[in-house]
Design goal:
With 167 residues, this protein is mainly beta. Helix content is 14%, strand content 40%. The chain is built from four helices and eleven strands. The strands form three sheets. A seven-stranded antiparallel sheet has the order 2-1-5-8-9-4-3. Strands 6-7 form a two-stranded antiparallel sheet. The N and C termini lie far apart (33 Å). Bound molecules: flavin mononucleotide. Flavin mononucleotide (FMN) binds next to strand 2, strand 4 and helix 3.
């Protein structure tokens, strides 16, 4: 173990060894759908209901997204690999052909996600080159689970996979 191992490229590789799910964080802002893919999503608290994710301080989308009263968070399913890349790609095409719903509060969720949350920003914490965003949940829906379940999109070593049953 060396200090050189802490350079960003090597850290990115090491962090990539840790598998995660992926969410879409999105809202309608000034009449446009705005959002991005995030694998830093974490459940935080049941009472009060809180979740978090980290946003890069370099994000061009976050200054707009954080202006929304409500944010939609959708847990992506295993068939969402292409959608996930699209949600991380050019901002003007992120929602092209993606079945999404805008709630009355302006939160945007993907119709075929595993679970969907209607959230508002509770607090933001500076954390190096990212900001940790704490979200308060106002509503939850898990439509796919009700319709026989489905496996989550898994992000690991810069690629996508799915869960397989443990032996
Ligand atoms: C699988 C995956 C996970 C990502 N997770 C995050 C994340 O947790 N936080 C973040 O700031 N960006 C994350 N990104 C990048 C954003 O989706 C987006 O590409 C980035 O914010 C640049 O776009 P922007 O400048 O419009 O924000 C992720 C991208 C991918 C493909």
């Amino acid at each position: 173990m060396t200090v050189a191992d802490l350079d960003p490229a090597s850290l990115r590789r090491a962090f990539g060894a840790f598998p995660s799910g992926v969410v879409a964080v999105a809202a309608a802002v000034d009449g446009k759908l705005v959002g991005l893919a995030a694998n830093s999503f974490t459940s935080v608290s049941l009472d009060p209901p809180l979740v978090s994710f980290s946003i890069a301080n370099a994000s061009k989308t976050w200054p707009d997204l954080r202006r929304a009263d409500r944010l939609g968070v959708t847990i992506l399913a295993s068939h969402h690999g292409v959608v996930c890349r699209q949600l991380a790609g050019p901002a003007e095409h992120r929602f092209d052909g993606v079945p999404a719903t805008v709630t009355g509060t302006g939160a945007v969720t993907l119709d075929d996600g595993l679970a969907r949350f209607d959230c508002s920003i509770s607090r933001e914490f500076e954390a190096g080159d990212h900001t940790i965003v704490l979200l308060r949940l106002h509503a939850v829906d898990h439509p796919v689970e009700r319709a026989h379940g489905s496996s989550p999109l898994v992000f690991h070593r810069s690629g996508f996979g799915r869960l397989s049953p443990a032996a």
